[in-house]
Design brief:
With about 90 residues, this protein is mostly helical. It has one domain. The chain has 4 helices and no strands.
Length: about 90
């Protein structure tokens, strides 16, 4: 997320007093504002949900573009070779 982007949209939600207290305590413990805490947690969850998608529905035109992109040669094969030869961070 771009931290310098201007926030111009609002998201409103209702909660119980107990839920709000837990969120406020967690935000304070994390050193974040309530808004920052809720936004960070929500974005993490949203990204996880979207990353777990295993089925994608495409129109015929979208499918044709997708297949063409898969079949196209790499625009920078040297960069791809270099990337694939690096040891991943979790294996270092």
């Amino acid at each position: 997320m771009n931290v310098t982007a201007t926030r111009e949209k609002t998201i409103n939600l209702r909660t119980t007093s107990a839920q709000k207290a837990v969120i406020e305590r967690a935000a304070e413990t994390s050193g974040k504002t309530r808004t920052a805490f809720i936004l960070d947690a929500t974005l993490q969850r949203a990204e996880a949900v979207l990353a777990d998608r295993t089925r994608f529905v495409l129109s015929d035109a979208q499918l044709n573009r997708f297949v063409a992109a898969l079949d196209a040669p790499s625009p920078k094969p040297e960069a791809l070779r270099s990337l694939l030869s690096r040891k991943p961070h979790w294996a270092r």
